[in-house]
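Incident log entry.

Two folding requests arrived from the same account within the same minute. Monitoring flagged them as a possible duplicate submission, but the sequences differ. Recording both here for audit purposes.

Request one:
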Amino acid sequence: MHESFAHSVWRRFKRHKAGVVSLIILGIIILTAILAPVLARHDPNAINPAFSSAPTGEYWLGTDQMGRDVFSRLLYGTRVSLTVGVLSTLLATSIGTVLGLLAGYFGGAVDMMIMRITDMIMSFPYIMLILVAGVIFKPGMWMIIIILGLIDWPGVARLVRGEVLSLREKDFVHSSEIAGMPKSYILFSEILPNCFAPILIFGTGVMAISILDEASLSFLGMGIQPPQASLGNMLNGAQSITVLTSMPWLWLPPGLMIVILVVCTNFVGDALRDAMDPNAVE
């Protein structure tokens, strides 16, 4: 019996133990973030009398300097980081995929114009672009999503363009052109499905970087603004030596959550790369 591509990918993915464990961990984190209103024991923005309290039965991860429950803020902060990571990745991959398809398929002036814009954006230091954009525009979750989406697309565009340059010489593309199929059909129904695997793999890396970027901007005060919880601005309140040495419950939970999200996302990406490799040894 012929095995479908999806079943083949899943079978090979399961061989990657780190990828499977990471996928399970990410699934649990995503579920807890979605259920944050149900799981949170306190309002994440509510100020309680217990300031900088160590973990107790009432406050599982203690409270911050303003008396806010760290556990509740961790749940809501994780939700923000995942939202920014997923949506900015979707925006960046959508823009990059469309521009890469157009550049690779049409070539000529279209290719030159898109690639010069891509080179111009990629020539600037990445972190500088993010910081400048964060200063210019009003801080907030949706603005961060737009900023990261508009900065992260060049890598996707170059990847897709390279794939299209190879695919447009294939017989199935020439057959569609000879049959008089519309360009839009050839691009999005014939070529794009064959680029899906590298786009998906590359997207996991973009998502990991986006989570780090959001945390960095929020840590520097140019991202998610208090009182809204964010993993980055939770770390922002734990910069003093006193907090670092005697109040680890203020910085360990958000710091570990960022590390876990980024590492697990990268492991899943590695597993997908191996599982989708057409030359993988069975």
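Request two (distinct sequence, not a duplicate):
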Amino acid sequence: MNTLTRARVIFTKLSVRFHSGKVGIIGVPFNKGQKKEGVARGPETIRAAGLIKELQVLGLDVRDYGDVNYDKEDIHDVNNMSHLSHVASCTSRLSECVQQVIRDDRQVVTIGGDHSVVIGTIDGHIKEKQDVAVIWVDAHADLNTNKTSDSGNVHGMPAALLISELSDYWPYLPGMDWQKPMLPIRNLAYIGLRSVDRYERLVIEKHGITAFGIEDIEHYGIHNVFHMALNKIDPHNEKSLHVSFDIDSLDPLEAPSTGTPVRGGLYLREAIHLMEQIYRTHRLSAIDLVEVNPQIGDARDIKITVEAAIHVIQAALGHMRRGLTVPKGVTDIPLQTFR
């Protein structure tokens, strides 16, 4: 390793460990990875519920980079892979946006949109930070290919598109030349699985992917599951962390406004604890919050789901249920506080 390469490695490790308290929000109003209308309204609905204000309360410097816009390329779709031209164009642009936010020394908060958008967020993160560990919080494994998917929906395929060891499972994908599978299997951990297709289970078992389902959480508890997962994918506590959080990882009672709900999921309390633990690593560089669909359910359902999404993001970025810490140098409480 030459001197320049060694310096870059040292700088990368330092930048992973110490954040500047700055956050960049990217909205991705995208719904072409699945067939249900409404999920594209996720970003506007979460913003309207006060996300930015809630993060500023934490003392964070928040910059909203707006929504991703893209021009659809004129390419041929692949059999049993719906709207590939849209997916390829949107995620390519999103990857560039994520890279820019990281270069601006900000933690990335991406609001979807359906789960196909993480093809772009994880790609951009890896291109900037190289050695990235991904914690995939989801009811589903999203490990299908166009040959194994029953639906052809790309939001059930992003993990398979990102994992380097699965590149041979895919045909040539027009429009996706910008994206090379760069996520090693050893750097991926699932938490919250409870609806896994047969092929996905085969891939998980054959390749030894770190995967904790709801049954494991019931047995070990969410605290232990997180630390077991982190020890597997980041044993030396040095990688940049990426959380891909699908709102359907929560039980439908906690987040009913989503397109593919599965009963028996995480409690919001467990999800918040998980995010608090991730925050305490001080290595979180990016979080995706996807699959909030404000056109599913009544007003109460939407409110519950959006509030859950904001709680998850807040916890990942430093909100503590014990209360925020006082500013440095404050050692006493002025009497006028109580008057």
